[in-house]
Amino acid sequence: MKRIVMSLALVATLGLSLNSCRETKEKAEDAVENASEAANDAVDSAADAVEDAKEATSDAVDEATDATNDAIDSAKDAANDAVDAVKEGAEDMADDVKDAANDAVDKVKEAGNDAVEKAKGSIGN
Questions:
Q1: Which residues contact 38 (CB under 8 A, 6 or more apart)?
Q2: Predicted structure pTM score
Q3: CA-to-CA distance for 83 and 75, rounded, in angstroms?
Q4: CB neighbour list of residue 119: distance below 8 Å, 6 or more residues apart
Q5: d(CA 106, CA 96)
Q6: Helix runs in the chain, H state only
């Protein structure tokens, strides 16, 4: 804004010192009009730039929000998958322990039955 005012003052001063009053007045008016149009164009351009920056910022925030939500969802899914895998592993381990315990009980019963049979056989002899 200072440049515009300074430019107008410079143009007005040069115009007044170099030309006749009438020409100076017409040129000064033209210069003021041109400067005013240029200032209006600059203001319009600045307003457009601000609006574009607002839109770009809003889009960037939306994209960042979407990316963050996607990352959170992925992390939740991964955590749930890990929990499910641990549960399945624990269930499989419990089944294996049960099977091993049942096998041990069967072997103990079999050994007990064999011992009883041997004892019966040795008593009868």
A1: 4
A2: 0.46
A3: 12
A4: none
A5: 15
A6: 2-18, 21-124
